[in-house]
Amino acid sequence: MQMILGAQQGTSFTWIMVAYIVIIVGGMYFLMVRPQKKEQKRVNLMLAELAIGDSVLTTSGFYGIVIDVSEDTVIVEFGNNKNCRIPMKKDAIVQVEKAGSGE
Fold this sequence. Notes:
By secondary structure, the chain is α+β, with helices and mostly antiparallel strands.
């Protein structure tokens, strides 16, 4: 009888440990993975709506105006110098202000 009682306690302890692991993994998903996916969706939407004339901030801290947009690259004009046009990947853009919304 003592042997059977010990086996039942071991089984219940195993299930409690499995439940704790599931709760911890679920909590980590909701605290880490889910917000990151939400932020990535926001960034992808922002870059998909990028248009000519929008003011952008790059990852290196430069502000510029979008001159041309292709599938994965943009040409950005920096400053008042019309000769300072640089092609860059869309991923290098961290912030977009739509043309005409800054006033």
